[in-house]
User: Fold this.
Amino acid sequence: MRASLHRRFTGPLAILAASSFLLVGCSGSADPNDPNAGGDAGGSVGTADGVVNVYGTINGDEATLLEESWADWEKQNDINIKYTGDKEFEKQIGIKVQGGDTPDLAIFPQPGLLADTVTSSGKVQELPADALANVKEGWSEDWQKYGQVDGTQYGAPLMASVKGYVWYSPAKFAEWGVEIPKTYDELVEVSKTIQEKTGTAPWCAGFNSGEASGWPGTDWVEDLVLREAGPDAYDSWVSGDTKFTDPEIKDAFDSVGTILQDPAMVNAGYGDVKSINSTAFGDVATNVANGSCALTHQASFFEGFLTAANNAEGAPATVAEDGDVWAFLTPPMKEDDPAAVTGGGEFVAAFSNDDDTAKVQAYLASADWANSRVSLGGVISANKGLDPENAGSDLLKGAVEILQGTDTTFRFDGSDLMPKSVGSDSFWKGMVDWIDGTDTDSVLEEIQAGYSS
Assistant:
């Protein structure tokens, strides 16, 4: 996704704003793609001036809701938060750091990118006391660690997403006489049954996401590594100890390939297997909503795309157990395997250390902010103080409960934790090449080579 609501984009409806490459918040008319723009965004690390500049990937309607989420707090604390969203954040943040044009706060969609920035620049500030206290109070040790570098807390968790949902039509499942599968093998069998009954490919997928193309495929692979090889192997892989060329990872690619590389299985309504790479990841919501695609694999934020699409009757699609579309988590390999999910989220890190910046960072790390933003709809958080009832839908309420559940094995999106040269470079590119027909062994060697670049 990265994931955040995604990493690679951040927000359920951001794709609908594709005609606008960025959204500049209350203050800004400067182009965030210009590394020399907005020179007052950072630089001074010790002077509070009543303005805190925040830079991130969140765009479009999601950026509007982000600004709404802190509007009351701004007035109460007499601090003006100026937000700038940039779809090229991953590329531009490095340029800004090198050019001395850092924002006060940056919303990083990948822990790996945050860690790279911390170690390479020396400009990211350690979390101030109040923000650190909120992180320790509201977030699990795992979530805390995702924002740490060498044991020091630099990033405070913000929003979250649960990945690995399979979206489907409850009415169509009943019509076809199939049930929600309890294992991955059953998922493949259900897919074959749907194909036989309909005569069309049951799955649709889109990997196209501009410079981030390929990330939806990494999510698939991560789900299967966690479910097949287990959490210890997943952790070893993410840390770089287990190589992409090792058998556990190839097995996960093979399992994903039983669907994504089978022309009888994909790409419903869009073409052949290779059309996955030319289909925008959010566009598949159209065919899922109208019923011409039976199944797709995507994170919790996909609900926003679905409700913005129309059902077969031309009305806005509903996401509910008895609605046009609903979802279940990618099933385990064995029915009695413990619940295991992957997910993503953003982390807020500071380049300034003045009092105003520290106050904003502490607020964004709090349960108060999490409840404020989640109550506006479309997103969730893993903050322990979040009331699940504030989530905007039954599916999102369930996703919050998954994140807060003590019995759930949760692992952060692997590509987001890996070094940028792998996670958001060779891994993404490798998925595209794999769908284009490059053999699995060559793709795995290509991805692994990212560690040497």
In short: Residues 1-44 have pLDDT under 50 and may be disordered.
